[in-house]
Amino acid sequence: MTNYNITDKLKTVSGITIVPFDKITKEIDWIGVEENINYLISKGVEVLVPCGNTSEFYSLTLEEAKQVIKKTVEIADNRALVMPGIGYSVDTAISLGNYASEVGADAVMIHMPVHPYATTNGVKQYFEKIINEIEIPSTIYFKAPHIEDNIILELSNLDKFVGVKYAINDLPRFAKIVEATKHLDNVVMICGTAEQWAPFFFSVGATGFTSGLVNVYPEKSLKLLDVLQKQDYSSAFEIWHEIIKFEDLRAKYNDGNNVAIIKESMNMLGLKGGITREPVDGASEQDKLETFDMLKEWGFKPEK
Questions:
Q1: Which of 105, 167, 192, 298 has a CA between 20 and 30 Å from the CA of residue 178?
Q2: Can you spell out the DSSP letters for the chain?
Q3: Biggest distance spanned by C-alpha atoms of the chain
Q4: Hey, where are the domains in the chain?
Q5: What gap in Å lies between CA 65 and CA 72, rounded to an integer?
C-alpha cells in the first residue's frame, strides 16, 4: 500500500481497540480480543488502532503489546487497515514498529513521549528518528500543549510521515496548523479527541477522527463521520447531543473514566469489555448507573 493510499484511508474513523482483561487473573482475554475486532469490522470500521491509550497501552508489557499487534493483524486479515500504537524510548518504539511491520501492520501511530522534561526540538528528534527507522508509514499522536506545532511542518518532509492525531483541544491553534499544511497531500490531520470534538475540528479542516465510542455504538460513530464528510453540521450536532453524555462520563476525573466507561458499556451490552488494569480504575457505582441509563436512552437493552 502506497503512502498516498494510507493517507487517503485515514480520512475516516480510527477505532481505538479495547483489550479485555480477565476479571480474576487480569490476563488478556484473547477470545474477547478476537470478538471485539470482528465486531468492529462487521460494523464497517476501516481503521483499527491497537495499543492506543484507550487500549491501555501503558498497562501492557512489551511482549503483550507485540501479541496484541500480531493478533489484530491476523484477525483483521486485510479487512481493515491496522495502525498500532508504539512508544516508550526511541529504541523501544523502533523495535515495536518494525515488529508491527514484520507481522503485517499497515502503519504505526507514535505516541507522544511520556517524559516530564520533553522539549519541542527533543520531541521532533524523537518522532523523526522513529519514523526514519521503521519500514512502514507513521502517524504521530500530538497531545502536549507546550510542544510547538511547527514540528509537524518539519516532519512533513519525511517520506514515511503520513498523518497527525491532533489531541489538543484548541481550535484556533488547530486551524493554524491545518492552514499551514493544506498544501501537503501526504499528511492527514485527524481529530484525536473523538466524537466530542470531531464536529469542531472538522469545521476547521480535520478529515478524520479517533473513537472509543465505536467499540460500543459503531453505527453512531460512522453516521457522524458521514454527515461531517457531507458538511451537514446540523445533523452532526444532533448526533453530538445524543452522545455527549457518554463523552462527558469518559472525561470525568481528568479523563480517568476514558476506558472504564467504554468497558462498562460493552459489558452491559454483552460485548467483551472485561475489566481495567492498574493504574486505570473501574467505573464507580454512580457512573455505572449513569452508563446503564444512557444505554437505555439510546435504545439498547443493557444488563447490570
A1: 105
A2: --HHHHHHHTSSEEEE----B-TTT--B-HHHHHHHHHHHHHTT--EEETTSGGGTGGGS-HHHHHHHHHHHHHHHTTSSEE--EE-SSHHHHHHHHHHHHHTT-S-EEEPPP--TT--HHHHHHHHHHHHHH-SS-EEEEE--TTS-THHHHHHTTSTTEEEEEE----HHHHHHHHHHHTT-SS-EEEETTHHHHHHHHHHTT--EEEESGGGT-HHHHHHHHHHHHTT-HHHHHHHHHHHHHHHHHHHHHHHTTHHHHHHHHHHHTTS---B--TTSPPPPHHHHHHHHHHHHHTT-----
A3: 52
A4: 3-230
A5: 11
Closest CA to 168 of 196, 191, 199: 191
Q: What residues pair up with 16 in beta bridges, in sequence order?
A: 49
pTM (2 d.p.): 0.96
The one-digit pLDDT tens for each residue of the chain (304 residues) are: 556 589 999 999 999 999 999 999 999 999 999 999 999 999 999 999 999 999 999 999 999 999 999 999 999 999 999 999 999 999 999 999 999 999 999 999 999 999 999 999 999 999 999 999 999 999 999 999 999 999 999 999 999 999 999 999 999 999 999 999 999 988 999 999 999 999 999 999 999 999 999 999 999 999 999 999 999 999 999 999 999 999 999 999 999 999 999 999 999 999 999 999 999 999 999 999 999 999 999 999 999 8
Query: What CATH number is given for 3-230 in this structure?
Result: 3.20.20.70
